[in-house]
Design goal:
7 helices; 76% helix; globular; transmembrane helix; membrane; CDP-alcohol phosphatidyltransferase family protein; transmembrane
């Protein structure tokens, strides 16, 4: 079973619509790991849609909106996989891998795609590495005996909220204001915010482990 203490606190789990979706998937015997993979596919698709803005600027509005939709689909899958696992009362020996690896792939795809859209793949890679650092600190601290820590200010949901908002902004406000300059700014915020988040989680983990002595 999924340990409640190890689950990311998400208010949307308590929404009636979300619970109905999870119940429908449980009734159909959906695989939690399969849902995680579907989320990863959505994340990869979002990254490709964002990158394609640089390749096919003539359909940039459609691509930005498609990317925003796929980012949200990725987050919905991340929400539902745990709910379905609990609803079905199933636990997989590789479930933790399915929880973590697709998230890292999705984050990397989305942020690198934004980097391509901004005209700087290096900036996208930097943001992806900073995002990965937050997860590395969280999982390493948990392995060392600290509580699972999903603190922000630039946790996964915050990064993806910024990516979604950016995509909608760029779709609605074309041109320089809604183009590369905006993407650059958001990627810098994500990078710096993720580094701070990693430092904060590390400090909190160290304090928690010291308190056990």
């Amino acid at each position: 079973m999924v340990n409640e203490a190890d689950r990311r606190p998400i208010a949307a789990r308590n929404l009636g619509a979300t619970q109905r979706m999870a119940a429908a998937l449980v009734a159909r015997g959906a695989s939690p790991n399969g849902i995680s993979v579907a989320g990863m596919v959505a994340g990869l698709g979002a990254g490709l849609a964002f990158a394609a803005v640089a390749w096919w600027p003539g359909v940039a509005t459609l691509l930005w909106l498609l990317g925003a939709l796929l980012v949200q689909a990725r987050l919905m899958a991340n929400l539902l996989d745990g709910m379905v696992a609990i609803g079905r009362g199933v636990a997989s020996p590789v479930g933790e891998l399915y929880n973590e690896v697709p998230d890292r792939v999705s984050d990397t795809a989305v942020l690198m795609g934004l980097g391509v859209a901004a005209g700087s793949l290096a900036l996208g890679i930097g943001a992806a590495l900073a995002a990965m650092l937050t997860a590395y600190i969280r999982t390493t601290a948990k392995a060392a005996g600290a509580p699972m820590d999903f603190a922000g200010p630039m946790a996964k949901q915050h990064r993806m909220a910024l990516a979604t908002g950016l995509a909608v902004w760029c779709a609605v406000i074309p041109g320089e204001i809604g183009g590369p300059a905006a993407v650059w700014a958001v990627l810098v915020v994500i990078t710096l915010g993720s580094v701070f988040t990693a430092w904060r989680r590390l400090a909190r983990a160290a304090a928690a482990l010291e308190a056990k002595r």
